[in-house]
Amino acid sequence: MQPFSLFAPAKVNLALHVLGRRQDGYHNLDSIVAFASVGDRLTFAPSGSFSITVDGPFAAALPQAGDNIIARSWAAVQAIATKRGRDIPPVCVHLEKNLPVASGIGGGSANAAAALRGFLRIAGIAEIDDEVTAAGLSIGADVPVCLTGVACRMQGVGERISPLEGFTPLRAILVNPLVEVSTPSVFKGLGLENGQSYGAAITDARDPSHWRNDLAAPAIARAPVIGEVLQRLSSTPGITRAFMSGSGATCVGLLADDDVTPDLDPRWWSMRTVLG
Q1: Which of 77, 92, 132, 268 could cross-link to 119 by cystine, CB 3.0-4.6 Å?
Q2: What is the pLDDT of residues 140-158, one digit of tens each?
Q3: Which of 106, 159, 155, 165 is nearest to 137 (CA)?
Q4: How confident is the prediction for the chain on average, in pLDDT?
């Protein structure tokens, strides 16, 4: 094989409605998802054995290689390939980690999706079929939507995905105050019992005035600086909407034009991007 690279774009939740908690403890969601023009990058190269190397501004925050989501993706594709009578030659995966870790923009899920695609390519498997999607879902709830790579409505625990035709790209700025927010702790902050309902579903997948993020309040309770980020974004002329993505702590400001410049703490991570 020849070395090749795949882009792993940040995933932004334009809306994240929590409908309730299921009897199995998982939460039913209704979400609008778009992908950014910024993200991580994975490079695949032949090697004597499977290995992972990492660099980039957020490399030090990742878990050890044995627990890495890329290693789990490798194991998943190995199992699929073996069932189909195919082999995967040893490969070294190099991750350029540009996105903050545990930041609500799907960095790990995007990496897993790119890793799955890369390993499938090496194994000579072209189609993202139900078995591949199920393998992605077993790695993380956001992995299946990251496998699509296009703006979608995502429902259930992440398994029901409907691409949004004609989605208009959006100028945006991503801002993270560099605090890690635990997704399980944020969901726990909703205080839902198994089987308990919560909010209403999205009524219009095209109208942002109908959208919300039900995880914002519990995330802000755990990391009040998120509220400060949102306040600075929402008070900036030319930012048409400010909201938190996923379970935080990354916040998003939609920009009327490229000249909009919010007043941000220089210690925060920020990046201009296009969503779509």
Answers
A1: 77
A2: 999 999 999 999 999 999 9
A3: 159
A4: 95
Q: Which residues pair with 154 in a beta bridge?
A: 31, 161
| pLDDT at res. 65 | 52
Q: What per-residue string of b and e applies to 4-23 under the rule 16 or more CB within 10 Å gives b? A: eebebbbbbbbbbbbbbbee
pTM above 0.85, yes or no: yes
Domain spanning 4-163 has what CATH number? Answer: 3.30.230.10
Which residue ranges does the chain devote to CATH 3.30.70.890?
170-275
* Model confidence pLDDT, tens digit, residues 38-48: 999 999 999 99
- Among 69, 33, 76, 30, which Cα is nearest to 52's? 69
Distance, CA of 104 to CA of 230 (rounded, Å) = 14
Chain centroid to Cα 180, Å, comes to 14
Sequence ranges of the chain with CATH classification 3.30.230.10: 4-163
Q: For residue 209, what is the DSSP state?
A: G
Q: pLDDT value at position 67?
A: 61
3-state secondary structure of 267: coil
Supply 122's token pair.
Answer: 């090496």
In this prediction, residues 258-269 reach a mean pLDDT of 97
Question: What is the average pLDDT across 163-191?
Answer: 96
- Measure the CA–CA gap between 74 and 243, rounded to whole angstroms: 34
Q: Which CATH number fits domain 170-275: 3.10.20.600, 3.30.930.10, 3.30.70.890, 3.40.120.10?
A: 3.30.70.890
Beta strands in the chain (DSSP E): 4-21, 27-46, 51-55, 91-96, 152-156, 160-163, 170-176, 239-244, 251-255, 269-275
